[in-house]
Amino acid sequence: MDKDQQFEEFILRGSQTFLQHLSVDCVIFGFHENQLKVLLIKWKEGGQWSLPGGFVKKKETIDGSAIRTLKERTGLDDIFLHQFYTFGDPLRGKNKIHLKKIVSDSWLQERFVSVGYYALVEYSKVNPKPDWLTDECRWWDIHEVPKLVLDHNGIVARALEALRQSLNDHPVGFNLLPVKFTMPQLQRLYETILNKSLDRRNFQKKMLRSSTLERLKERKTGGAHKAPYFYRFDLRNYKRALKEGLTGEW
Amino acid sequence: MDKDQQFEEFILRGSQTFLQHLSVDCVIFGFHENQLKVLLIKWKEGGQWSLPGGFVKKKETIDGSAIRTLKERTGLDDIFLHQFYTFGDPLRGKNKIHLKKIVSDSWLQERFVSVGYYALVEYSKVNPKPDWLTDECRWWDIHEVPKLVLDHNGIVARALEALRQSLNDHPVGFNLLPVKFTMPQLQRLYETILNKSLDRRNFQKKMLRSSTLERLKERKTGGAHKAPYFYRFDLRNYKRALKEGLTGEW
DNA sequence: TTATTATTGTGTTTTCAATACACATAGACT
DNA sequence: AGTCTATGTGTATTGAAAACACAATAATAA
Q1: Which residues, in sequence order, are CB contacts of A39 under 8 Å at separation 6+?
Q2: Does B208 touch chain A if contact means CB atoms closer than 8 Å?
Q3: How far apart are CA B66 and CA B53, in angstroms?
Q4: Is A135 helix (H, G, I), strand (E, B) or coil?
């Protein structure tokens, strides 16, 4: 079956394998060069950017659907994933993806309710993959996200809010940073998520107080200034903290 | 059109007016006699208890659908409503509502994904109403909820968790208590939601610190002991607090 | 080799919330 | 009048949050 046939099949009979009216959108966050990034895709038809997402198979969990699209776009399993909101405004389809070949009575033309997930991934581990419907898949700086299809800009905004919220009770760095990282790096991460600057010394005190971090003897070299220590997460205390919840807000 | 016809119509052609595969479930919280309550309904057919819920009309917001079912069951408009999670396990239909008259290929037999909302209402204002499919609609103590259909017990549990969470940054009492209330009442509310006892004096200090409460000169009489003062929410500060967010956790 | 520069490491002080705890007061009842 | 008990009010301690200062060091420039 060639691409065109595959596409035809999807348009005409997709509703036999997927739940109608329901989709999943993933806001995939990464952190690179001290900036928070979002992974976006560009449709071949129409050339518009959008969130990676997908449909829910008839016997598949919604989470499962999100995990599947994450795997497809990043190549990664075992990603931190969090459902944060379900978007169901009947008008959200206004700015619909334009597909030339679309059939007027296709299931794709119907109204869609979309379950929003955000995912946290380690930037360097991701190998962004476009697929047969998209010709680009790449990271965008959170502050430079272009105009997206449908209500996807709003979804990104809400995902960021949800992430910000979860910073209070969840050691987010673990999922976004490499195994070894420095305190300044961790601080930049928090600062970009919160979009405000924090005091270096108070930040460090707060981070260390939770006992989820372990300082290594190694220091990061190559920088132009004093070499900062590397840290890594202490898995034991980290998991304990997840259960008990962290205290303090931002 | 009589009841039976109406029912037949709903079973056979409901999918013309509602989105398939999608429903809304509402966990309606009230507070009465120092206990947290949940409003539940009992199906005529099968006699099982469940959460009040409904389906989403083809041109209706999901929120709109929740507001509609809330209005139908409580008679109230303008209810505090919060979407907290979407339940999409394909197996959640295992313990399906049993309807004698159901047609085997009815849209109702399909898998349903359900958007969960919790609502906060003032107990005394509610006039619980069963409808043509249900013969009972009444309050249950949160700790005495019976076995419910589908995964509704789990939905209640998650709603309570979400409510507990929102206690941190949202002055919940305003929606659940009458206009005038006493400090002990407010404390009982927090204690039942959190399911733990709090220190009287520290609780009061914390509540008053937020400046969302105003003490009245009137005291509550009739009790067997020293008469407690009435308080009411200070709308100005209350709204400011909502925007800025409250601090402190539980 | 030495000086410069910017960044990191490591404190201190003050303020205020969280927590634990004690005594006085006032309604209803005997 | 006296008892019982829930409410009103106050104090001490601990610890986190926030504001702030100086020493150490790695790369670079002189």
Answers
A1: A28, A30, A52, A73, A74, A126, A128, A137, A138, A139, A140
A2: no
A3: 7
A4: strand
CA dihedral B147, B149, B152, B156 (to 10 degrees): -30
pLDDT attached to residue B97 = 65
Helices A200-209 and A183-194: crossing angle in degrees, nearest 10, is 100
CB contact under 8 A, A115 and B58: no
Question: Inter-chain contact B113–A56, Cβ cutoff 8 Å?
Answer: yes
The residue to which tokens 């209330």 are assigned: B181
**Is pLDDT of B247 > 60?**
no
pLDDT digits (tens, 9 = 90+) for A20-32: 999 999 999 999 9
Chain B residue numbers with beta carbons less than 8 Å from the beta carbon of A66 are: none
Antiparallel, parallel or unpaired: β B18-32 and B113-120? parallel
Question: B90 to chain A: which residues are within 8 Å by CB?
Answer: 58-61
Q: What is the pLDDT of residue A1?
A: 66
Distance CA A117, CA A130 (A): 19
Distance, Å, A222 CA → C2 C1': 21
pTM value? 0.93
In the structure encoding, which two tokens stand for residue B196, read together?
């733990």
For chain B, the first-to-last Cα distance in angstroms comes to 54
pLDDT > 70 fraction of chain A, expressed in percent and rounded: 92
pLDDT, one tens digit per residue, over A192-207 is 999 999 999 999 999 9
Nucleic acid strand C within 7 Å of A183 CB: yes
CB atoms within 10 A of CB B209: 12
φ/ψ of residue A101, rounded to 5: -80, 0
pLDDT band with cut points at 50, 70 and 90 for residue A239: confident
Indicate the burial class of A166 (C-beta count within 10 angstroms; 0-12, 13-18, 19 or more).
middle
Closest chain A residue to B63, measured at CA: A88
Per the model's pLDDT, the better-predicted residue between B109 and A173 turns out to be A173
Any idea which nucleotide's C1' is nearest the CA of A230? C8
Q: Is the CB of A61 less than 8 angstroms away from the CB of B21?
A: no
Nucleotide minimizing C1' to CA distance for residue B182: D7
Q: Two tokens at B95?
A: 């313990």
Other C-beta atoms lying within 10 Å of the C-beta of residue B238: 18
B195 contacts: CB under 8 Å, gap ≥ 6: none
Both tokens of A194, joined, read 């919160």
**CA A193 to chain CA mean position, Å:** 13
Helix, strand or coil for residue A152?
helix
